[in-house]
């Protein structure tokens, strides 16, 4: 398990982290979300040893994380870090060698990853000749080439087209299923909701929520949405919630709870087109948490 324990960090008099803490289990995909400047990159840099915290620590398998552990981690930094003039294949292999792979192993892992990320045909091209999305795929290959024990990815999906998002998501899910804890930051909350087992929301350097999407939802109230066509006027008088009339459709939104009474009234009033509980999306949970 990767544990981020009460991290604190200041840049001069600016408090960037004020007690950030969460844990990522083996085989768990953890989405790290927060507004611009909330502290995600700072946290990930501390995990990877690029920055030192003022207080707190990061532990892996119950022990404080050291340089040797970090060499077995895969990292996609926010500032990216590819050699622009180097060819794609050579570059991925080179990073594999840096992480201690033998030449044949680095070659094999590079071949597999380039194939998986649809980059085989670009193998001999210099990185600078690739589109940004393809450069990002190379960056992911570099993060994965040594078969890392843990993956730490700073906004790996930003700027990718939907096909590339799916390709990258598939590779990450595979690693995750193999027992690797994966942590990634993103502003694409629908994607985080779709992919992640757990989510942490950071706001101004503090964790304001963390847990599975289901747990975060359970802390919020759900909304019952009732749509009645050709309803008699006044049918919802005295009921809680908010009624809007849209042509011949009456739409009642109410905090879920007294559902049966409302259902009876709706059936008596007209033709019930829709009656269902709507759970808050991660975007709604996020807005509420950072408000
Ligand atoms: N090198 C630095 N010097 C001074 N302040 C910094 C530095 N790096 C980050 N900060 C500040 O620390 C806070 C946290 O920044 P950080 O980059 O960790 O946020 P983030 O959540 O990754 O943001 P984004 O979503 O915009 O990438 C911000 O207020 C930022 O301005």
From TrEMBL:
Main location: membrane
Name the UniProt record assigns to this protein: ABC-2 type transport system ATP-binding protein
Location of this chain's protein in the cell: Cell membrane
Keyword entries, A-Z: Antibiotic resistance, ATP-binding, Nucleotide-binding, Transport
GO cellular component: plasma membrane
Domain ABC transporter: 2-229
Domain of life: Bacteria
Record-level Gene Ontology MF annotations: ATP binding; ATP hydrolysis activity
Key word Nucleotide-binding present: yes
Gene Ontology biological process terms in this record: response to antibiotic
Pfam families for this protein: ABC_tran (PF00005), DrrA1-3_C (PF13732)
Topology within the bilayer: Peripheral membrane protein
Record InterPro entries: AAA+_ATPase, ABC_transporter-like_ATP-bd, ABC_transporter-like_CS, ABC_transporter_ATP-binding, DrrA1/2-like_C, P-loop_NTPase
Gene3D superfamilies tied to this protein: P-loop containing nucleotide triphosphate hydrolases
Organism: Nonomuraea endophytica
Family designation: Belongs to the ABC transporter superfamily.
